[in-house]
Amino acid sequence: MSARKHKLINRPEDILGEMLEGFCAAYGDVARLTDNGLVVRAQPKAAGKVGLVIGNGSGHEPAMIGWIGEGLFDVNIAGEIFTAPGPERIVDGIRAADCGGGVLVCVSHHAGDLLNAELALELCEAEGITDVEMVVLYDDISSAPKGRESERRGTAGLFFVWKMLGAFCEGDGDLAAAKALAEKVRDNTRSLAMSLSSCASPITGEVMFEMPEDEMEIGMGLHGEMGMGRQKALGADATIDLMLPPILEDLPFAAGDEVLVLLNNSGSMTLMELFILYRRAAEALAEAGIRVYGSWIGPYATTQEMAGFALSLCRVDVEMKALWDAPANGAYMKQA
């Protein structure tokens, strides 16, 4: 599968601004674009609530602009394509999210994102902004072995943290409790991705990596980072049977657990394929005595037109299920 090099854009240098303008024009009931380029909730939280901020390189839409709104994030700081926003921009986002209850900065674990967030917190301290915390999020089992979870990358499974943390911060919990909840969901989440094809940069048109037509890679990162290795492409059931066992073993998940399941489309997988894949995942979980409490299937954290998917599981308890079921009104999580 070759990457699609031609993209329907105008000037490469205008991609970010025009994308954000279009997004906020389409979903103006939940998000708006500030004069300094932040995507913020159309209706701010009540005073005294914990504010939630996330920054990320663009090119992975709907992540993270799609998670702004009631029951979700307050502010997204969108960086250039595949480039983390700078520390000054993150400080702008922290100011915009401050409702008086402190601000939690959520960092998907990648080197640039973490470095810039740490620098942003140093700037906050220098400016006397003290009621701010950072939580580093990760879920990808292919990027570091068991026992070194904090070295792992943040990938599509962080969806579970975003949703439950957003619901928690609509309530009266304080900043410390919000951070603890984010860590709890993170520590109960495991993900593994695979890829059948690469994608092309919308800026340069260059293909991120080459992939033979008859091969697949297990453990591919959101930016094309190498995973567990390449092999001959398998059918849907065989692919799930290859990917699910290491996910289950890593936490480990066990018979009697209840889980949330995310089957994330990396960009150009068809719904037909995703439903066939989910069918086998649901069967295998039932065989293991694990009950699916809820599932989401679709493009939630993409890498342009990459063909592939990520399988993510989150073990849930009573508290987490209530947060999962709470209302959310983002562009991609609308509830009637």
Verbal overview:
- The protein is α/β, with parallel strands linked by helices.
- It has two domains: 12-187, Rossmann fold; 189-324, 2-Layer Sandwich (Hypothetical Protein Tm841, Chain: A,domain 3), CATH 3.30.1180.20.
- The chain is 30% helix and 23% strand.
- The chain contains eight helices and 14 strands.
- It has helices at 15-26, 87-97, 111-126, 159-168, 175-187, 236-250, 271-287, 318-325; strands at residues 31-33, 39-41, 51-58, 69-70, 75-81, 103-108, 132-137, 189-195, 215-218, 229-232, 258-265, 291-298, 308-315, 329-330.
- A six-stranded mixed β-sheet has the order 1-2-5-3-6-7, with helices on both faces. A six-stranded mixed β-sheet has the order 10-9-8-13-11-12. The chain has a two-stranded antiparallel ribbon with strand order 4-14.
- Helix 2 crosses helix 3 (111-126) and helix 6 (236-250) crosses helix 7 (271-287).
- The longest helix has 17 residues, at 271-287.
- It is globular and about 55 Å long.
- The model has no long low-confidence stretch (mean pLDDT 95).
Question: In a few lines, what is going on in this structure?
Answer:
30% of the residues lie in helices and 23% in strands. It is an alpha/beta fold.
Write the layout of secondary structure elements.
Elements: H1 15-26, E1 31-33, E2 39-41, E3 51-58, E4 69-70, E5 75-81, H2 87-97, E6 103-108, H3 111-126, E7 132-137, H4 159-168, H5 175-187, E8 189-195, E9 215-218, E10 229-232, H6 236-250, E11 258-265, H7 271-287, E12 291-298, E13 308-315, H8 318-325, E14 329-330
Parallel strand pairs: 3-5, 3-6, 6-7, 11-12
Antiparallel strand pairs: 1-2, 2-5, 4-14, 8-9, 8-13, 9-10, 11-13
